[in-house]
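Q&A log
Question type: sequence-to-structure
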Amino acid sequence: MNSVGDSIDDIINLLSKHYQPKQTNPQSKFYFQPPRIIREKTNISQKKSQSVNPKRITSSKEQLPLLRYLTFKPYSGKQIDNIPDYGYYYKFGSAPIKLIKGALEENGFKETQDKNWTIYWSSTSIKVDVYQNLFAYQKVSHFPKSHEMTRKDLMHRNISKMQINHGFINFNFIPKTFILPAEMSYFLEEHEKIKNSIPIYICKPHASSQGKGIFITDKIQDILNKQNPNMSYVVSYYIDKPLLINNLKFDLRVYVAITCINPLRIYVYEDGLARFATEPYSLDSIKGNRFGHLTNYSVNKESPNFIANNDPSMDHVGSKWSLLSLREYLKLNKINDVQVFERIDDMIIKTVLSVESIIFQACEMHVPYRQSCFSLFGFDVLVDQQLKPWLLEVNHSPSLNIDAPIDSKIKGDMIADLFTLIGIVPLDQRFSNENMKGQIKSDPDKFIIRECEDETRRSRGWKRVYPNENSQRYQKYFEIDRQYNSILRNYYK
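Response status: OK
Response body:
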């Protein structure tokens, strides 16, 4: 199977007939409003389609207090001046990001350089002293040690450990990979075994992004010539039979949020991006055709064949599609998109589990409150001709640039839903979490379940993939079966 479907015109006609993008309600007038508050009132015994142990849920006569959280609207993209001061503040730990700044300011937040912020957003790793001085109401945008999953060499090392400890077949979603120069002798030994088959390799600097420094080759000498004691390369077997659309290679940007590490809670956003190469795919031109083999947007936007998408309602047109339109395309071509994305969810959960213990230990050491951290990741996924997803990399701080209307729509909705999901409390409830420590100790089951259920009610476009009704199958992959994970696993089974 070299490609799916017919000509691009046929594809557009089919999608125009059958696919109706999610409608938005643009405001006729732009205005500020104070942060909106939603009330969470959980009756755990009414959870749908799941069995509950009433004795465990009602073991304490004391009722948990009513919790309230802020809800966020998507950024409109308009210029913001003279922001009213409602008492909510944010701070950047790195260079400002227009989307984050706009989304927060339109929802009543002001930027500050003081310590009284509510949200701290950074595109880089966060210093230890920021974690150690947190108040209960404050939220920071990264977990400590999360680079263990996002730096290419560390990601491969951690997943390789899981392959050794739990079976290669259970973690067979990354191509065989070598970290050079550290594994040079192993790499040369493996190459010698298969050199007659002329293997193709893709080589990436261990800490690069946006396609910088990547090259593809079937000549081992090309790799040896790149060796530098000050630069590690991640060298992988090239996935040479990708699923194609109109003879173009593509990959998926899947947005993943971790809202808590203890207990572990993982969400996947309903929409994302499908990013296309801009030259027809062919193995006859692996060296000289970056536009045919690399799907990075930052690479292909420089191609003369790049097609910009200027209409967010036509998100199945051009070199960047929405994930929802891609799924509709797969359905129209009789491909089981549900199965493909269930496999992607499984891959995401297992990838997070490969670093769960590392992040948990870092949080125990440096972060005073369980709910202080959240992380947004960008999982880059390639689907092959057998409909198997492969993990290409995980982005520590996925791009939130708005280069086209489709970016504004998808990323704007996603960020608004993320800020709603993580549970920002109103001013009068800022220190309530500190007062709940006694309640969680006296009745942990009730507290942890209610916390998860309340968060799920705020999820909007985010789908909780862990914990869920299949949590039991992942129990063996935890280094330690922690109490709070066990509570939720038993609740959702």
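Response note: The two ends are 39 Å apart (CA to CA).
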